Amino acid sequence: MMINELSLSTEYRWKVLIADDECIIREGIRESVDWERLRLNVAAEAEDGEEALELALKHRIDILLVDLNMPIMDGIELMKQVREELPDCKILIITGHDEFTYAQTAIRLQVKDYILKPANPAQLEKVLRQVRDELEEEAIQQQHLQTASRQITRSYPLLRERFCQEWMEGSMTEDEIVEQLSFLELPVTAPCLLGMIRLRESASPQPLMQESERQLYLFAIENIATELLGSYPKVLFRDPFGVIVVLLWSFSADAAFHQIESSVRTYLKVAVDIHLTEGDADITSMPAVYRKCKSSVLKETAISPLVRRAKQYMLENYGDCTLTLESMAQQLQSSPVYLSRMIKQELDTSFNSYLTQIRIRRASQLLNGTDLTIAEIARQVGYETQHYFSTAFKRTTGASPLQYRKGGAAQEE
Known about the structure:
This protein is α/β, with parallel strands linked by helices. The protein has helices at residues 5-10, 23-32, 49-59, 75-85, 100-106, 121-154, 156-169, 174-183, 211-229, 254-257, 260-268, 286-299, 305-317, 325-331, 336-347, 351-369, 374-380, 386-397, 401-405, and strands spanning 14-19, 40-46, 63-67, 90-95, 113-116, 193-200, 234-238, 244-248, 271-278.
């Protein structure tokens, strides 16, 4: 019930239902209380239990005054049903002296109090005031809880960042991690992928980037990353060194992640180093994955702009079965011979080997995380035929795609 504290004291009237089969009792109760002064309102009266239940639900009453002996549906059954439908309703029993033992049994249904017939006005008013005060206290408490809940919800991005920073530091137990993931409405599993985005400040138009400018670029990069990654389950946060870390709970997000570098270059005219590493099934092992990715992204600084663009081009176009060294060199405005030599020199592998690594890594993710057929996966990762794909996959991993899907091998990044 959304009620502010002002309305509790000056405006709101708690709704009361009087249920008794004796008209004179109902009238006596109604006439002996100054309902307005108590901030109460008799919303309805009923002479049998069935009518009382219908009216209670219709008016969503706050207080029920109920006689135990009523026709059609007795007071006990009425209280049971009201308790189920209106769990916050306060129930007061109207009883005669000879029904006292019966009333004591009814108190187990969380009845607040009982009133003896004929009702003593002073006693009745005292009990009603106590119940009203309890309703008001509960309403105010509920309001504070709802306000706190809204504040926490608005603070989720910051809370997620702080949690992820602690998680990557390796200072949390498995139970603590699971509890925080659940509380922050994140998947209660280890992320499939961990990515990093590092602003290369030397690429700034100015020799030395001011801190305010750096923060502005980082904020803009985060916005681009968030937009590209769309609805994929994720968390973005900055580590203590200003590197943007992205936790992703979907292998399918890798293609979108690798578009970040070119988008930042196009729209912000600055360069970033990015790297994406597969997660670990053990959530307590994510700090090691974080350190591995951090090491890799720092190494990107030593790579020449040409080879960096070549890596990016392969990551974005590995699904094109017509991709060759020659076609890529043409796009990068370089000679195939020079580009091949630079890739070998800086990545310590050939163009074909590096492209195969990318394709097989992506195929492994699809085999583990989707129900796509092997032929469909082959086409998605840039192989014209399933046979050619299966041969390359087994040569790289030591297992056929089917064996891998059944758990016959483990793919290392």
